[in-house]
Design brief:
With 269 residues, the chain is an alpha/beta fold. The chain has 2 domains: 7-95 and 210-268, Rossmann fold (3-Layer(aba) Sandwich), CATH 3.40.50; 97-207, Rossmann fold. The protein has 11 helices and 10 strands. The protein has helices at 17-26, 48-64, 75-88, 97-107, 119-124, 126-134, 147-153, 160-175, 192-199, 209-222, 243-254; strands at residues 7-11, 32-36, 69-72, 93-94, 112-117, 139-144, 180-184, 204-206, 235-239, 262-263. The strands form 2 sheets. Strands 4-3-1-2-9-10 form a 6-stranded parallel beta sheet, with helices on both faces. Helix 2 packs across helix 3 (75-88). The longest helix has 17 residues, at 48-64. The protein is globular and about 50 Å long. The two termini are 23 Å apart. The protein binds D-glutamic acid. The site of D-glutamic acid has 16 residues, from helix 3. Residues 11-12, 15, 41-44, 74-76, 118, 121, 149, 185-187 line the site of D-glutamic acid (DGL).
């Protein structure tokens, strides 16, 4: 394995760009390959078997790009397919649940943590289990917010309709007096401002992007695989759906232009 091989990152769509952004900020020299499976999103309402199947196809595609590490930039895939992915590949695999859970356990002051995610992630109970490993007496209140993924994929952030939906989804959590809210889906940081407008500034939002980037740095360093070259990394983007939509919304979110993205037929993998 060579240091200048890229890091492979995948998600069901645009959401994983929230993790990629943190990676680019912390590790600017790293080359990356991003795959967003927008053509088959959302993953959060699919069966665990389908999520595993899709995730393994995504990983096969990334391995074909000679990646030195896989980052599962999707909570749903992390909760359902992590073990299957680890069993399939020899490269290190980083998931997003552990870092977010650790941050939430450390952040809460009143011991009441809210978790929002896709139906699949919420049903998997992975967050309550992982948070309680670090802080066993906390109260955890979960809420599935499936519409958030479509709103993010449509670029409907900072919109009244999004805030209204957020108000409905978040009410039970706010009624439980949470002081910390885990954005347990990588699409949700795209809607951060809408979510904060409902929670108010006193609820701490946790999204794992930066913590995941730190884990990536740590793991690459321990394997002597950190790219310590002097040039900025190159970034390649692939999607299973409209390239235009991916580039427009992706560029807005990353705050840098995605010059090129390629559409691939992921079913081949
Ligand atoms: N962004 C993904 C997650 O973190 C998946 C959202 C979806 O496709 O439902 O869960």
């Amino acid at each position: 394995m060579k240091k200048n091989q890229p890091i492979g990152v995948f998600d069901s769509g645009l959401g994983g760009l929230t993790v990629l952004k943190a990676l680019m900020e912390l590790l600017p020299q790293e080359n990356t390959v991003y795959f967003g499976d927008s053509g088959r999103a959302p993953y959060g309402s699919k069966s665990p078997e389908t999520v595993v199947k899709y995730s393994l196809q995504n990983v096969r595609f990334l391995l074909e790009q000679h990646v030195k590490m896989i980052v599962i930039a999707c909570n749903t895939a992390s909760s359902r397919a992590y073990d299957a992915i680890r069993a399939m590949t020899g490269v290190p695999v980083v998931e997003v649940i552990g870092p977010g859970a650790a941050q939430a356990a450390a952040a809460t002051r009143n011991g009441r943590i809210g978790v929002i995610g896709t139906r699949s992630t919420v049903e998997s109970q992975v967050y309550p289990r992982t948070i309680r490993e670090q802080a066993d007496s906390v109260r955890i209140c979960q809420q599935a917010c499936p519409l958030f993924v479509s709103l993010a994929e449509e670029g409907w952030w900072d919109q009244p309709v999004t805030r209204e939906i957020a108000r409905i989804y978040l009410k039970p959590l706010l009624d439980s007096h949470i002081d910390t809210l885990v954005l347990g889906c990588t699409h949700y940081p795209l809607l951060s401002r809408d979510i904060i407008s409902v929670t108010g500034p006193d609820v701490r939002l946790v999204h794992a992007g930066q913590a995941v980037a730190s884990v990536v740095r740590q793991q690459l360093a321990s394997l002597a695989l950190l790219n310590d070259g002097s040039r900025d990394g190159e970034h390649q983007y692939f999607t299973s759906d409209s390239v235009d939509q991916f580039r427009t919304l992706g560029s807005a979110f990353l705050q840098q232009p995605i010059e090129q993205a390629c559409r691939i037929d992921i079913e081949q993998y």
